[in-house]
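Lecture 7 notes. Example A: sequence first, then its structure tokens.
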Amino acid sequence: MKKALALALAFAMLLTGNVFALNHKNTFDNEATFETMEEAHVNGAEWLSAETGRNYVPDPAMDDYPEGTTYVYRSPNMYTSMTAALRMNTNFLVYTDAAFESKDDAYTYLEDMGLIDYANEGIGSIILVTPINPETGFGAADQVAYYKLQSAMCNLLFATGDRSTPMNEREYYADNSYYGGLTYRYAIGIDGGATFLNNYVSSVIDYGGRLAGMLLIGGKMDSIRDIPVPIPAYLVNATDRAIDKYAAANGVDAWGHDGGLEICWNKALPLQKVCTCEAEEIDLKAIVADAYNRIFLKTMRIPVVKAGLYTPGTLYDNYNFNEAPYSIAKRVAWFTGRTEGGLIVTEHVEDRFADICTENGEYLQSWTEILPEEVLDGTAAPASIPLILANHGGGDDELQFVDEIGLLPVAERERVAIGAAYHGNITAINNKALPAFVRYLLDEYPALDPSRVYVCGYSMGGMATHASIYGAPELFAAACPMAIPYYYATDEELENMKNYEMPYMMTTSTYDAFYADGVGVTFNYPTYLNLFLSYNGIDEIEFDFDTYLHSGFAGDIYTCELLNGEYYNHTWLMRNADGIPMVGLNVTEDLIHALYPEYGEVVWNFFKHYSRDPETAKISYTETGF
């Protein structure tokens, strides 16, 4: 137990770091900039050091990046490097063999194709790349440069030292935070740039596997090249060979057209699609707009596989997020606070909860409300909209967490409201602050249904999920702590929970920090499962991991499904005396301790069956879901 407690405390320090609840912002206040790569490489460290108070240095990977080849546009209000919010920066990588006499000419080129507006809209950067040797065009040397650029841009929050190194003694690499990103990463190739992306990028797992979409205009593809991972693609004047290879990589089995645009896609995984067209005259702005709306706004990519799987022995293999291929997932974009499907996204910074504070004065000050528009315009019936309290993990941003855990597609489709509080460094008061947040939402928006309030959270957010239900079990109809390291309930909380049934499912994955590499649930999971079995009047489990590899028990109900065509997901549920499944364990194979967009569907498919009467606190269950 002492060893487990020491691990828990060490992990708590890792989770919280030097991130605080007060004055949280998920964007910088920067103005737009346009620089050569040489300027950005130097300026980024100085600017970030002044903005954050951290010690930033240029990323060594870019020290010998070829000069005179690359330009960097940064939109206003880039996502901040103080949390994982910077993963949401949209990155457009533009490869062209066009030549530019000046920075003004390069900027005009991007402006004329409409990309400046899209970068401003989505928040992020544009990296405009020309060949190292303009006479011979893109080649193997440019691939080396691509690797350096990718390594720097995706190396998010990298710092020298280790967990024992004091924060003020670490050096943070600047390039990733200045113009990098992760989740929304798209490539555009024009003529020789398209050939380069075909032959040197899409054919490499570690490169193509990080791109959420490609637009290729012209160009060729060598017969020896194959595409090893799905990449959603928009191809203009492409060769039959290139079209066939992208179609095969995306596993297409359905075809159609929209005017002059031919579209093929994977019926089971429709984000994996290829759009093709022929054009005698290239209207670059119109083509970019169509690719942006059909692919770039629809797809994102999330790193979840074991690090270094395809990159051992390479330069910079110790950098963060060497976890390609990333998973393709549905992107739900929000611009001016609204998604296409009618969710209103509103960020709040208020002192409403200042009376609930830690010993050092921290309190819940920042949160994001994601509400179906009918909640705000008064057209939703009273008590008709379910509410999910979504708790981010350590170092994450509340909006980035909701995005990457896959709750936005669920909320659009099912008309569900989400409350996501930024709770960095207020762990000690989450059992009071988070229930207070839920009560505020229910009071503020009569359309929210007090009988269908659910709570989930990942890692540190799993701790916050436990804090929420132990702090006010009567509020919640079901709970899903995900990859939870620990939660030490008080004696009073433990005793009070005995008065309530609590539908409860824990989730974990094969390479989770608290899962023994595919040989059974470890740490406190068995303890927590047995606790909640007892709360729900179900016999406790004697765990046997020799017989039941992933779970330690057989369960009354067992299901297995393939998520997103890539990872097997197992669920075990235990029934109470009335035959209602009340406690479960969910395990996904081959994933690390990371956010995965399919988890949103997993938790919703559990939540939707349960409600709690606000008056009697009794749980109701329906087989098909409410």
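Example B, a different protein, same format:
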Amino acid sequence: MAKLIIDGAEREYDEGTKFEMVAKDYQAKYDDMIALLFENGKIRELTKSVSKDAEIKFITLHDTIGHKTYVRTAIMTLVKAAYDVLGKGDINKIKVEYAIGQGYYIEISLKSGPLTQEQCEKIKDRMDTLIEADRPITKRSYPKDEAIRLFKEEGMEDKVNLFKYRRSSSINVYCLDDCYDYFYGYMLPSTGYVKYYDLMQYEDGLMLLIPSRQEPAKISYFEPREKLFNTLKEADEWGTMMGIETVGDLDGQVCSGMIDDMILVAEAFQERKIGELAKQIVERGNVKFILIAGPSSSGKTTFSHRLSIQLRTYGKVPHPIAMDNYYVGRDRTPLDEDGKPDYECIEAIDTDQFNEDMTRLLKGERVEMPEYNFKTGEREYNGTYLQLGEEDILVIEGIHGLNPKTSEKLPDESKFKIFISALTALNIDNHNRIPTTDARLLRRIVRDARTRGTVAKKTIAMWPSVRRGEEKYIFPYQETADVMFNSALIYELAALKQYAEPLLFEITKEDPEYHEAKRLLKFLEYFIGLDPRYVPNNSICREFIGGSYFKV
């Protein structure tokens, strides 16, 4: 018998009892489905068994780790259903592409032609059958060479390519009936756990709808985000053209000695997009305010500098304006739900003063511009004046740039709105996408340590609050932008790797951020690091790793 401490009380279980049975004994006490658990602080899947005395804490779908486990299980169930309905012989590729709201876009490429609505409906029916049958999902550790041989037989060359560069001597393989797969992360014990989902045909593939972490038992209405989808699709198509769709492809480029050429091509592509954007702004005419908004670590500062340079080639005179200079005094900053200053909310910005200053500038008046003193928490006026001439343009950067309240008193024809984010199109393999939030978090960890002396555990601890602010104040306005710009670089995670790893290794098991640090370290293991000397000094990547031409 083993003694388990659960919810502060001791209870005995026979050794060998599945944690799934333990979870079922306590499920009624939890509002949300139990997905995983901590055994003495270590994450365990429910398929594992009781083996010793331990303290147990349950992880539900409301927790980020639990929610991601649910998503992976739903994806494997969908892949199995697609194989059953379409037949492996007709499938060129099933690729989990990107997240759009609560949906996951999945491309299914068939030898026989485009995916049809009828096929989509049959896949959903098959998923329902698999879920009702509650088919078990088992895990087995294979020696690396054996795993490579297995996936080669399954025709999954993306996984073969990925494992070729893995240092680990063994690979965890999941099995659902006759379907073998690899997933970066934990899984639920069976298909029956996927109680809430929906599936719809979308563009050339499928949209798998999953409940949010906040409401894990509710499927929300899917709102198409065309600009976001098209921006992600463009990045994905460019990666395909370059022959770099997965991490294994990128690792191959690094090992081939051709990575310096690939970096130059990636940077040239991004510079071309910035140049096209500058041309579009100039050709519109009457634009006096370029409003740039985007989530944390999207590269807004470097982008604004590079856009300004391109505007100068058209004879324009750009002036950078940081919306942070319009923060209200620290003592007047609203508090968040935890009673801490909420610098992310729109009320933290003096929008009235901003609109007044911008309106006066538009009229040609000479205006003294504020500077926010982050040490004193007050706005200051230090004799910096600005007056707009015929060719002058203000390049305004701030997270609330697209919020209508920010520029409500400015005429629409004078504004050009840009949404910028690091929309990573690179996949680990076809069934394991890289969340754009992971790339941004790694960017921020590296930059915060370099520019602010902030340790990684503090950046990770702050990240949930940052993400809440983005979901509430930034993303709702992204589709109102005139243009969406993708600041992600296909090679950047290989460049960030050697900067991020030492910072993450400083986080100890005693720290609450340990499990997230461990997850990120495991993620970075997939990448072969590249020499940062190849990264140009005007690159957006330099905003994070250092060595930029610009003051960032």
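Note on Example B: Residues 232-545 form a domain with the Rossmann fold fold (CATH 3.40.50.300). The mean pLDDT is 95.
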